[in-house]
Specification:
The protein is α/β, with parallel strands linked by helices. The protein contains 4 helices and 4 strands.
């Protein structure tokens, strides 16, 4: 059974895009993964670069607004920023809502290397949480009903 997951953030430019790429890479075909924002902008180049360091290419992903997903069922709707958590609508079906409060790497200051370090931190925190989500889903599906 495919598990449908939607990651939400304000601009769908970094955190939610990295989360989408990570779950696709780590979860494989078991997951159908999407990301969106309360506003659409563009995928940030430093997010693409941070993910490429792990061998995950998100350069083909694009920023989308959540309106296109409002009538679709999801197993998980995961907000990765506080503003999106406040603005997140209810989704039909059994969607389990999770909120992962993560800093906005696009607000990082300093030279490119200093900014990239923040993107790496957020990427690594997302990877940890996504691995935990996958492990919990695996354990739940393996236990007898």
């Amino acid at each position: 059974m495919t598990i449908r997951v939607l990651f939400l953030c304000t601009h769908n430019s970094a955190r939610s895009q990295m989360a989408e790429g990570l779950l696709r890479a780590l979860g494989g075909e078991r997951y159908e993964v999407f990301s969106a924002g309360t506003e659409a902008t563009q995928v940030r180049p430093l997010a693409i670069k941070a993910m490429a360091e792990l061998g995950i290419d998100i350069s083909g992903q694009h920023s989308k607004t959540l309106e296109r997903f409002l009538n679709q069922p999801f197993d998980y709707v995961i907000t990765v920023c506080d503003q999106a958590a406040e603005a997140c609508p209810l989704f039909p079906g059994p969607a389990r809502r999770l909120h992962w409060s993560l800093p906005d790497p696009s607000k990082a200051t300093g030279d490119e290397e200093a900014q990239l370090a923040v993107y790496r931190q957020v990427r690594d925190e997302l990877a940890t949480r996504i691995r935990e989500l996958i492990a919990a889903d695996h354990a739940a599906s393996a236990s007898p009903a």
